[in-house]
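Checklist before submission:
- one chain only
- standard amino acids only
- sequence pasted in full

Submission:
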Amino acid sequence: MSDPAQIPTDTLTTVGMLENTPAEVYARLRRTTPIVRLQALGGWIVFTGAEDVNRVKTDGAHFWSSDTTSPMQRAFGGHTLMRKDGCPHLRERAAMEPALTAQAVAQWRPAFEALTDRLLDGLAGHSKVDLLPAFATPLSAGYLKIVLGLDDARAARLFDWAQALVRGAMNGSFDEDIFAVSDSANTEMNACFDRMIPQHKAAPDGSVLSTMVNATDPLEISRIRTNMKICIGGAVIETRDALLSTLTGLLRNPDQLRHCIMTGEWAAAVEEGLRWVAPIQASPRIVKKALIMRGLHIPQGETVMAIQASANHDEDIRSAPDIFNIHRPPHPHHSFGEGAHSCLGGPAYRLLAASVALPKLFARFPTLTLADHTAVEFKGFAFRGPSSLPVSFQ
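Returned file contents:
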């Protein structure tokens, strides 16, 4: 048997290409070098095929998340469950999980409906609006406030906090100016959580914060805080972007939109939107133990990226993957992850989007159309979604 080859390095891809045209980049890499070092990402190894992405996320013997040296620890004010494995990770995950099951989040449906109705009332009477600031952003912040158990006083800060956390976590150069912003956000978030804890102990409501502080064997306050920040750092941006991507796909395909309106099959649209443009495009891991994949030597200790955005477009699984099509044969997408670190927020997002937001929006405004097809641009490497979504009310 021949010795394993070294991983090739891609020097063609630029950061701009990953931000602006990632689908084209990943399609090329899947064809030519599905496992490759990207010079644009500092030489990190990326995996682009569906089978390989799934392995990176589920093969705990060779890939893990444990890391106490990443900028995420400073950015989030502590060592988060995203950078833990095994029992420490499972204990923190289990502390939140009871609040995020499909059965648990069903209690929030009336609150989601009331929030959505208020926002739709605000859209009435307009001839044209941008759904990003007018609908998707306040809906995402309002829904997350409900699920997490926060009050209105700081709900308006959720996007600012999330952006500070994400930017800090990606601060590979350990720039103190960037950390200063995340440090300030951490101070605000800690004060917010600490103010809410006595209220949740006095009147538990099943929210994430309430569930954690009222547990029989609760986590330390530092871990409760970092768990809340993980939810904020991912969910508020991810929800907004996923909803806007699904809306874009439906509005660009009026026949599919009519099908959803007539049949009520909004769940298919939600899953296709998540597949079509993964709101979180990539997930980092560290090589725990060296291995051979596709005849290549994957060295121990390397930082790698599992590109779920690419896995969702793998031509070996789906034909014409760049096309939004709610009628595809059902097949799981990778946008909520696999394995021990799969996203806990899936049931809450699916309830909000498929059962409340989309049906209510189009029941209220059935003739809603894109104001300009060419005006919808998708941006972002880590988080990706439309930068605006101008629509007309006919």
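Reviewer check: The chain has a mean pLDDT of 95.
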